[in-house]
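[User]
Protein folding is very new to me. Any chance you could explain this protein sequence and its structure tokens? I have pasted everything here:
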Amino acid sequence: MSKASLLSLVFVAPLLAAGAAHAKPAPKTLDLPNVSDVRIDSPAGELKLTTTSGQPNRATIEVRDPGSGVTPSDKYFEDCMALVSANVEGKALVISIAPAQSSVNCSFKIDANILPKGNVTIKQSALEASLDGDFASVNTDTNAIRMQLDGHVTQLGMKSQAVDTDLTYKRIDKNETISIDSKAINAAMDFGGAPISYSVEGIASAIDSELPNTPGAKPSIKLKAVSVHAVIR
């Protein structure tokens, strides 16, 4: 199965499609005045994570429409939201979402603005993630992931069956490490032309890099998969 086919099978309508317009309950909201870290354990869903100064440090969690032309009932939202546990532990936002116990296919959207230079850990079956800001570490363990980064991560680790990622680094501190371990990797990485080192382990790999592989340089990139396609700038 191709990378595109695998990703298409996982990121189906319940995750990406919007349903018919209707009134939805207010999202769960948490204030995060001192939070820099995030820990999430969840089924399929969407995450938007920022470290924007001058904006409220706050998180919202809401149930997504099921899509596919289905008009959900109030009970659908109530049953899905009942699966959510969210609280602040020290400087960490901790979100745990239990799997649904019936045929209900719950999908969630999490939007959080936190303090910069925090640690992010996500365990989720299917993840659509947008990260905009400055993070010390981001580690994900998924079945399939699409992730866009616009900012900076010192240590990035991704384990999955299928990875589709677009990484744009706004600055380089020469201490960055990136490790992606998956069956299928499709990656675009922009380091602004900074010196990098990289290694690729794959049965089928296609690497388009405008940057030479400079041993010992950081950012350091390790890609391991059966199939790898990467564009590096």
Summary: The mean pLDDT is 90. The CA atoms of residues 107 and 147 lie 17 Å apart. The first strand starts at residue 28 and ends at 31.
